[in-house]
Design goal:
The protein has 169 residues and is mainly alpha-helical. 63% of the residues lie in helices and 0% in strands. It has two domains: 27-94, Muramoyl-pentapeptide Carboxypeptidase, domain 1, CATH 1.10.101; 99-167, no CATH class.
Length: 169
């Protein structure tokens, strides 16, 4: 049996040990990994907040949103494997202007505005419905070629600005 004094001493040691463990800084690698994840998720429009290497609630939510969108188990945990997947998705076009607008729930409204502008400028984007279909992409490419822009065929904020500038002439 443990006496009251031994029990109390044991409890003090456990609490002191936990306090010391929590006071230890995270490893440089994990802070660097979290920082890189935060920077990449910011670039992708997932908004984890300030890139500071600290796992806060915004970072956890951003990781969960990324994991959900890309069909991964939703854990909210940072890891080197997650960073590798984020980098692979970035290389695969996950930071395209359309994906960024879609994450901000703005793609349909931007697409509709682009379609209306293209129609006013004499390009046929098909129905003005906010959907990016083959006719819209073709009209965007035609406009971009005529305006001397890179021919991406993608809806983007700079594209809409260019169309609006052309309409103001």
């Amino acid at each position: 049996m443990i006496g009251p004094l031994t029990h109390r001493l044991l409890l003090i040691l456990v609490v002191a040990g936990m306090t010391l463990w929590n006071a230890l800084p995270a490893s440089a690698e994990s802070e660097a990994t979290v920082l890189a994840i935060q920077e990449s998720l910011n670039a992708m429009g997932f908004a984890p907040g300030t890139a500071d290497g600290v796992m806060g609630s915004n970072t956890i939510r951003a990781i969960e949103a990324f994991q959900k969108e890309f069909g991964l188990p939703v854990t909210g945990e940072a890891s080197d494997e997650l960073l590798d997947r984020i980098n692979a998705e970035t290389d695969g076009g996950a930071t395209s202007p359309e994906r960024l607008l879609a994450r901000a729930n703005l793609l349909r409204s931007y697409t509709r505005a682009v379609q209306m502008g293209l129609l006013e400028l004499g390009y046929d984007p098909g129905p003005v419905d906010g959907a990016v279909g083959p006719m819209t992409r073709s009209a965007i490419v035609s406009y971009q070629a005529a305006a001397g822009l890179p021919e991406t065929g993608e809806v983007s904020k700079p594209l809409l600005v260019s169309i609006n500038t052309s309409l103001a002439r």
